[in-house]
């Protein structure tokens, strides 16, 4: 059996990650790739929880900037995350992987309510748990939801899947001289405003010394490689940058 560094993880997926190169909607090939890696991890005994964003369907903050009430916009964004969660659940269950979607907003016909002890029990039984609808509150991002849920269920790390291969001191698309960090402290990420995750999420991880690993979802078997402890992407923890 493959040796893994982490035995219980929380995978944070952005809505954009599910859209592939289109930037909107759900790309079935991307969802299938994610489901394949998760199912292989589960088969090896790794307990996997997932938090997914909704930016490929609706962005609450962007709608608020165009005049929509912020709370209303955020609630619509939370509903978008449920759609993405159901898409991932469908792909996993087609692989005979038992999966539960838990929503912070009650919608019993399509998802369980979020109950911490039930989520932990699902993980212990080898089920994949997908947390949807963020924290259930406006003004909180899915990054913050990911950190909160990771701490609640006792995850050993947050794996943040992105479209770039780590954290840089500038946008590598715009600046070819941008420096990539292999290691980064929480406080450096906050002080340098690196936009890895929002400051609330990073502060919560820092207070509880929960490592965050940022990596490129599109690299082959990237999720499995991170869980094995391979040095890809950027790891954020208490110690300094390198």
Textual characterization of the structure:
The protein has 242 residues and is an alpha/beta fold. It has one domain: Carbamate kinase (3-Layer(aba) Sandwich). The chain is 38% helix and 19% strand. The chain is built from 9 helices and 11 strands. The chain has helices at 15-18, 28-43, 60-65, 70-93, 116-124, 142-153, 186-191, 199-207, 222-228, and strands at 8-13, 47-52, 99-103, 112-113, 128-132, 157-162, 167-168, 180-181, 183-185, 212-216, 234-237. The strands form 2 sheets. The chain has a 9-stranded mixed beta sheet with strand order 4-3-5-2-1-6-10-11-9, sandwiched between helices. The longest helix is centred in the middle third of the chain and has 24 residues, at 70-93. The model has no long low-confidence stretch (mean pLDDT 92).
Order of helices and strands: EHHEHHEEHEHEEEEHHEHE
Strand order of the biggest β-sheet: 4-3-5-2-1-6-10-11-9
Largest sheet: 9 strands, mixed
Q: What structural class do the secondary elements suggest?
A: alpha/beta
Q: What is the β-strand count?
A: 11
CATH domain class: Alpha Beta
Question: Termini distance?
Answer: 32 Å
- Coarse morphology: globular
Contiguous low-pLDDT stretches (5 residues minimum) are none
User: What do we call the CATH topology?
Assistant: Carbamate kinase
The percent of residues in helical segments reads 25-40%
Topology:
Blueprint: E1 8-13, H1 15-18, H2 28-43, E2 47-52, H3 60-65, H4 70-93, E3 99-103, E4 112-113, H5 116-124, E5 128-132, H6 142-153, E6 157-162, E7 167-168, E8 180-181, E9 183-185, H7 186-191, H8 199-207, E10 212-216, H9 222-228, E11 234-237
Parallel strand pairs: 1-2, 1-6, 2-5, 3-4, 3-5, 6-10, 9-11
Antiparallel strand pairs: 7-8, 10-11
Helix pairs in contact: 2-4, 6-8
């Amino acid at each position: 059996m493959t040796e893994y560094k982490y035995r219980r993880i929380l995978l944070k997926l952005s809505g954009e990650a599910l859209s592939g190169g289109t930037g909107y909607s759900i790309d079935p090939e991307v969802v299938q790739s994610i489901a394949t890696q998760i199912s292989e991890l589960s088969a090896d005994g790794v307990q996997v929880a997932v938090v997914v964003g909704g930016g490929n369907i609706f962005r609450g903050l962007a709608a608020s900037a165009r005049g929509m009430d912020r709370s209303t916009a955020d609630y619509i964004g939370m509903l978008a995350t449920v759609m993405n969660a159901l898409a991932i659940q469908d792909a996993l269950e087609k692989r005979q992987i038992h999966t539960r979607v838990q929503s912070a907003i009650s919608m019993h016909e399509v998802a369980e309510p979020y109950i911490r002890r039930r989520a932990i029990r699902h993980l212990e039984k080898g089920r994949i748990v997908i947390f949807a609808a963020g924290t259930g509150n406006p003004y909180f991002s899915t990054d913050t939801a990911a950190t909160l849920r990771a701490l609640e269920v006792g995850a050993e790390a947050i794996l943040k899947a992105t479209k770039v291969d780590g954290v840089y001191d500038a946008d590598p698309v715009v600046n070819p001289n941008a420096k990539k960090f292999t290691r980064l402290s929480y406080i450096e990420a906050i002080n340098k405003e690196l936009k890895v995750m929002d400051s609330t999420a990073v502060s919560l991880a820092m207070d509880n010394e929960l490592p965050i690993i940022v990596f490129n979802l599109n690299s082959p078997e990237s999720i499995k490689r991170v869980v094995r402890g391979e040095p890809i992407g950027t790891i954020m923890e208490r110690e300094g940058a390198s």
